[in-house]
Amino acid sequence: MTELICIGCPRGCHLKVDEENGYQVTGNNCPIGAEYGKNELTNPTRVLTTTVRISGGIHNCLPVRSSGPIKKALLMEAVRALKDVEVASPVKKGDVIVHNIVGSGQDMLASRDM
Amino acid sequence: MYDLIIIGAGPAGLSAAVTAYEAGLEKILLIERDSELGGILNQCIHNGFGLHLFKEELTGPEFAGRFIEKLRDTNVEVMSDTMVLDISEDHTVSLVNSSGYQHIKGKAIILAMGCRERTRGAIAIPGSRGSGVYTAGTAQRYMNMDGYLVGKRIVILGSGDIGLIMARRMTLEGAKVLACVEINPYSSGLQRNIKQCLEDFDIPLYLSHTITDIRGYPRVNQVVVSKVDEKFRPIARSEMVFDCDTVLLSIGLIPENELSKSAGIVLDPRTKGPRVWENMETSVDGIFACGNVVQVHDLADNVAAEAKKAALAAARYVQQNRQQDGELELKTAGNVTYTVPQHIHLPLSEKLVEVSFRTNRVFGKCAVVVADREGNAVCRYSREYITPGELQKISIPAKLLEDKEEYLTVKVVEEQK
Ligand SMILES: Cc1cc2nc3c(=O)[nH]c(=O)nc-3n(C[C@H](O)[C@H](O)[C@H](O)COP(=O)(O)OP(=O)(O)OC[C@H]3O[C@@H](n4cnc5c(N)ncnc54)[C@H](O)[C@@H]3O)c2cc1C
Ligand code: SF4
Description:
heterodimer; A: alpha+beta; CPE0013-like fold; 3-stranded antiparallel β-sheet; 10 strands; elongated; B: alpha/beta; FAD/NAD(P)-binding domain; Immunoglobulin-like; 3 domains; 7-stranded mixed β-sheet; 27 strands; 20% helix; 33% strand; binds flavin-adenine dinucleotide; binds iron/sulfur cluster
């Protein structure tokens, strides 16, 4: 039995995950918690948010996010890969900045217009 | 003459503007001192916004973007790069921008100026005055908008959400976050942020600890961290020394209320924001307030919801259909430190009265009890867990309050297992 705090939403439910019983989750207040509890022990993932350089925008940096959760172990590598990325203004919210970032299956998207 | 003037275009001001327009107000003006709309959300690039409101996990800029898009379809006038300097009781707003200084008037006003961060001065940390001490929000702005990482080896004082979010951000950017140090025996940030920002990266959280010395000049090179007793006094010989070049302060936010004071609005010393009625009206007729200027919120979703309430009330005020004569004060007891609203008009125009509050300690299984003047319970809400770091909310059915007099008391009681 493993105890976890669900990060699915700010409510922060205290979860108990039973590894011996097919990763059954208790303590969750919604289905997201059940899925998170199982994934966290089998294949932990996170949404990545960071920035890339932008030229010609009102700031030096454009905020970007992954289109979905990527493997936790790939986070550092993904940030490193984004260090050398530079885009030019104008960019629209939702524009794909990098396809399939470090082979994770997710794209990095612009978080705003700039 | 405007129907409504809104000051500040963070999530509170944006949500208020959209709501007031939808409620039928004709001439609305939104004023922002920055060059772009969105307030603090522009620097909060992480996700976790909008779960309540949009049922999606958005980043800060995406969350602001939703409102900015909606605003484009309205006739709300927007004045950015404009600083409001003064508001008077008769609703005159004095402002300055590139076209100079001017006075304008609104039938109603909504204050949505947000918060600023507490700084080192506010808690008087001893030590040298070397560079390398930043508030977490300033470091966040440098990092996320200018692309500048403020240091390589970092100690964070305070476990507020901004500090936690920055711990993760700076770690991903290649800095080493050595510790997060919190004087209270509990974290002041959200549980999920402790998990995903500290534990994910094996950053230790020292509860009941504080920084007792900052060393190094011209740049910080060491901090001393000590354990504290239950009265927050440092315990001798509990010192740990960390070699670091940067200290981030994440020690809380203070509502930005210079303008409220100039308008003669009564502030609550506990929240440091205006005392408000259940419809977010302040002590001055026709001036409303919402968002972080009223109380420090954990979530932009709640800010937007509070702003909606303020905007609907402001619209009702301008359209002049309200009649309220009674009032109930909301008192606190036990471990409840404050409530927002602080008082309620009777009869109520809405079916539910939402009350938010914080406690000064952690509770396990417990109940929030609202009692009347005679001490009888009016309503009761079971809770599994309450921590000071998370803003609590209850909704009281208005019909339970119809015959109540003078005041109600909000308290938290432990429940027997
Ligand atoms: C540094 C920092 C980081 C934060 N990070 C997070 C986070 O990661 N996640 C989260 O959920 N919450 C975070 N918060 C809390 C966040 O502030 C609230 O959730 C929400 O943004 C508050 O909305 P608001 O509209 O009340 O205030 P704000 O977003 O602060 O907006 C207030 C606006 O008013 C403007 N203004 C102020 N005074 C004047 C004036 N005199 N004239 C004209 N304009 C004026 C300001 O420029 C600003 O744009 C953070 C807060 C701060 C201070
Ligand atoms: S289980 Fe559901 S309600 Fe509980 S924290 Fe997770 S997402 Fe939120």
